[in-house]
Amino acid sequence: MKRHSDSVPEQPTIRPPSEWRSTLIRVTRGCNWNQCRFCGIYSHLGEPHYSPRTYDDIARDIQLLKERRPQSEELFLGDADPIHAGVDLICRVLDLLYQSFPAKKVTSYARVSTLKKIGEAGIDRLAKHGLTRIHLGLESGDAEVLRFQRKGQSPQMVTDVSTWLRAAAIEQSFYVLLGLGGVERWRQHMTGTAALINQLTPEFVRIRRLWLYEPDPVSGAPGCPLLTQVQDGSFTPQNAEGTVLELALLLDLLQPSPTFLTCDHSNNVVQVHGRLDTDLEEMRREVRAFLNLPETQRRLLYEEHRSRI
After folding, report:
1. pLDDT tens, N- to C-terminus, the chain (309 residues)
2. Under 8 Å between Cβ of 141 and 197
3. Distance from C-alpha of 188 to C-alpha of 175, rounded to nearest angstrom
4. Which UniProt keywords apply (predicted)?
5. What is d(CA 193, CA 285) in angstroms, rounded to the nearest whole number?
6. What is the DSSP track for 248-273?
7. What is d(CA 243, CA 181) in angstroms, rounded to the nearest whole number?
8. Residues 154, 128: contact at Cβ < 8 Å?
9. Model-level pTM?
10. Residue ranges per domain, the chain?
């Protein structure tokens, strides 16, 4: 993985699709947790180790970006969990960003466990220094699914952290993974997830499908860690139709709220978007209309979708 040079700023390995306009600021490299069975993506992409960057290196990158994109109003902090590098460092970086750009939005990934550790006071400091939105991997609201997938968080931890973020007026973007409970536990997965969303009403819910990527024989990059459980029979992956049924159940269980739900990734078979207080019924109808198509037509659509991703 290419490191810092005097003329090229480092870039985060991954950023949310919704941050495609944002100027990217790399605070850490890789994932400090790197134990989730369903993920392992940083190792697959050539970033197997975690390391925080120094303030001086980050500041040098910010200066380079200021020269190239001086009118940036939206900025994103990466990689997987920048806040793990410390509240003091993030606050210094935030201060420098607001001094350097006409920033209106500064967002970040964060692990629930890290936010739990820094506590309400740490979150409040981040808000005061201008962090406006956090992207959280909820993945599931079911405690057993989270335990099996080694996510390192619980529904109660999510509840505590979400409450603190709301009090600090930091927007929350929850990510939900269809298929994460497998065939064995898909109903509990969706039931628990809907319950948390109904309780916490985050500003955004972003839907993804579980991706069981294979090892790359050319580069030697490892495959998804969850393939081990698929092979030993302790996890049975959902097929495409199963994940659509999960989406249908989730929408049936969700209650009207200002939350904006979106399937904003190409790996979703059915893509619906809308606010839960105004568009929920329409989203339910769209998914049910898909499931009511003739089986042969649905199979063709599943095959077409698989060929595109």
Report:
1. 445 556 899 989 899 989 999 999 999 999 999 999 999 999 999 899 999 999 999 999 999 999 999 999 999 999 999 999 999 999 999 999 999 999 999 999 999 999 999 999 999 999 999 999 999 999 999 999 999 999 999 999 999 999 999 999 999 999 999 999 999 999 999 999 999 999 999 999 999 999 999 999 998 999 999 999 999 999 999 999 999 999 999 999 999 999 999 999 889 999 999 999 999 999 999 999 999 999 999 999 999 888 776
2. yes
3. 17
4. Iron, Iron-sulfur, Metal-binding, S-adenosyl-L-methionine
5. 20
6. HHHHHH----SPEEE--STT-SS--E
7. 10
8. no
9. 0.94
10. 17-308
* C-alpha–C-alpha distance, residues 29 and 177, integer Å: 23
Three-state secondary structure readout of 7-51: CCCCCCCCCCHHHCCCEEEECEECCCCCCCCCCCHHHHCCCCCCE
Cα-atom radius of gyration of the chain, to the nearest Å?
Answer: 20
Residues ≥6 apart with Cβ < 8 Å to 194: 141, 249, 250, 253, 254
Which tokens in the block code for residue 175?
């990510």
* Residue 158 near residue 141, CB atoms below 8 Å: yes
DSSP 308: H
